[in-house]
Write a structure and sequence with these properties.
65% helix; mainly alpha; 4 helices; Helix Hairpins
Length: 110
């Protein structure tokens, strides 16, 4: 699925409800909640904070997708084309960081 398709699917989902898109700060709070859920699971798996015995594992892929969904919601509500914006970010990183790190050395085939 492309970013454009994802934004359209999110819009179709939200448009079926009378309430429509929530206000920007509510969506930001939702994003913060979802990032917190992702952070909690990452910390349980890879950090120092261990789960309680009765606490179930969460699916990191689903937690990431929850974050992405809310990002798509925010972009739609703000009229932002995330595909175009991502292209601009790649260009920014290319210009700013192209000489920042060592490139991967390709092994020569002899």
């Amino acid at each position: 699925m492309t970013i454009e398709e994802a934004q359209k699917r999110v819009d179709a989902w939200i448009s079926q409800f009378e309430e429509g898109y929530w206000p920007p700060l509510t969506n930001l709070a939702r994003l913060t909640e979802e990032v917190g859920e992702l952070a909690r699971e990452m910390n349980h798996r890879f950090g120092h904070k261990k789960k309680k015995k009765n606490e179930p594992d969460q699916d990191i892929a689903i937690e990431l997708a929850d974050v992405l969904f809310v990002l798509l919601v925010i972009a739609n509500e703000q009229g932002i084309d995330l595909g175009e914006s991502l292209e601009r970010v790649f260009e920014k990183y290319r210009e700013r960081d192209s000489d920042r790190w060592m490139p991967v050395q390709q092994e020569s085939k002899s």
